[in-house]
Amino acid sequence: MLHGIGDLRVEDIPEPAVPDGYVLIRVAYNGICGSDLGVIHTFGVSEVAHPLTGAHGPQVLGHEFSGVVAEVGADVDGIVVGNRVVVQPNYHCGGCARCRDGLEHLCEVVAFHGLSAPGGGLSEFTAVPAANVHVLPDGVSLEQAALVEPLAVTHHAVALAQARPGQFALVIGGGPIGIGTALNLRASGVERILVSEASAPRRAIVEGLGLTVVDPLSADVRTAVHERTDGLGADMVFECAGVAVAVETALASVRARGTVVLLATYKEQVPLNTYALMFSEARVMSSLAYNRDEVATVIERMAAGSYPLDGWVERVPLEMVLEGVADAAAGRRMKVLVEVCGDE
């Protein structure tokens, strides 16, 4: 339970009620996300009720999670007790201009379960709208399914860039989002991928996934890209590091009329070299979340074996959640999955 900046506690709370149209999930695994670390250490939780969900601090965290349906509310079809599921955590109002335009994931009052809606995946039980639940196929484990949300984030970014086979992609940042981006590029048929990562342990993990990686502290990334593209530059660059110098590298490395996608969050304003944009006519866009179809695509790819977990995903038991958060924040672990109830 997050009570304020830096004030994360393990507490006993009542089991949530199950309103009509909701299901109660016994959580198996929950991933620690960069967004979680941001609210824990920098942004905190709002004391003002969210306009869509009514949620306010203190907040149960956790929006990347899988589990088993323990109870089904009234007016729910297609989901039964015992179903193995993953939750799509973004909520939308359905009535704003963006929702009416088919952009529910960009709803003007968007909320996320475990960040700005009641409950979260870092609890043994949580109640969610049935419309936000995806039933898992037999070929996807509950542990794998806890990674569907970040993989859907990165699949959406790759789709925005309109990636296609034969192109060259630069991924800046070899953390979980960078790895997810590279895996989704590969699943989309893009084989020419270069990952830039300063951390030696992370570079080793990226290489272990069969990806090419460069150290930006010892090599010029722009030069490395141009050597591999006959001087043209990358067709698309995905910025996953969240620091200003990475944005500069992205603009220097993209080809004329190429695409830069910003997936990272930034604690401070990032200066933008508009002349670099002007003289390359590059396109810069941000990427936030995903829609239901994109989540379904990730589940299908997961069942087909597109997302290896070896080397970059580590489990911690629920009683070690505070240590897991600290390790993720300090970079001592790559992707942390909290074993809430596990596969019991």
UniProtKB/TrEMBL annotation:
The keyword Plastid does not apply. Signal peptide: none annotated. Keywords: Metal-binding, Oxidoreductase, Zinc. The keyword Zinc applies. Pfam families: ADH_N, ADH_zinc_N. PROSITE patterns: ADH_ZINC. InterPro entries: ADH-like_C, ADH-like_N, ADH_Zn_CS, ER, GroES-like_sf, NAD(P)-bd_dom_sf, Zn_alcohol_dh. Its cofactor is Zn(2+). Residues 4-338 form the Enoyl reductase (ER) domain. SMART domains: PKS_ER. GO terms for molecular function: oxidoreductase activity; zinc ion binding. Belongs to the zinc-containing alcohol dehydrogenase family. PANTHER family: L-THREONINE 3-DEHYDROGENASE. This is (R,R)-butanediol dehydrogenase / meso-butanediol dehydrogenase / diacetyl reductase. It comes from Rhodococcus tukisamuensis. The lineage of its organism: Bacteria, Bacillati, Actinomycetota, Actinomycetes, Mycobacteriales.
